[in-house]
Amino acid sequence: MAGENCVAIASDLRFGVQLQTISTDFPKVHQLGPRLFVGFAGLMTDNETVYACEQSRLQFRKNVYELRENKSIRPKTLATILANLLYERRFGSYFVEPVVAGLDHITGTPYIASTDNIGCISEPEDFVVAGTSTEQLYGMCETLWQKKMKPAELFECISQCILNAVDRDCLAGWGARVYL
């Protein structure tokens, strides 16, 4: 969710297989830079392949970009790298719905984007949602989001949206974690 010179990303903490809960503190949002976050909804084994394992494809490409260009990666560039990574596997795709949120370190503008599982980027100016609670999140976000929210207002808005949405979804929950 984007505000005025600020951005927030949130996720629930439940990790489960269908109706069976395995963990209640599973991180789904990862920090890739001082003002850059990526969150994954979907199949957690593919999440591990794309982001978290030792041979992480996303971290590798991010590091190669930063070494080759000799500068920090911008959020829009990361979203493009992630979309290309997913599109390469379009015929046997990863079952993940990534969300990229960050502040551009040069202009200071907020950037949010999401992709589908084959890498089609969506770059709205207000908010993006992904996961099992998308219908509930769309309703809450459309109701509560306003233009030019300050960081405190943005935190309250995204917190209310995620908590109310996961209360109405039996496949999500066990609290939420918000990054501002």
TrEMBL record:
Keyword flag Cytoplasm: yes
Example GO biological process: proteasome-mediated ubiquitin-dependent protein catabolic process
Location in the cell: Nucleus
Chief place where the protein resides: nucleus
SUPFAM superfamilies: N-terminal nucleophile aminohydrolases (Ntn hydrolases)
Pfam families xrefs: Proteasome (PF00227)
UniProt keyword Nucleus present: yes
UniProt keyword terms in alphabetical order: Cytoplasm, Nucleus, Proteasome
GO cellular component, one term: nucleus
Protein's name according to its UniProt entry: Proteasome subunit beta type-3
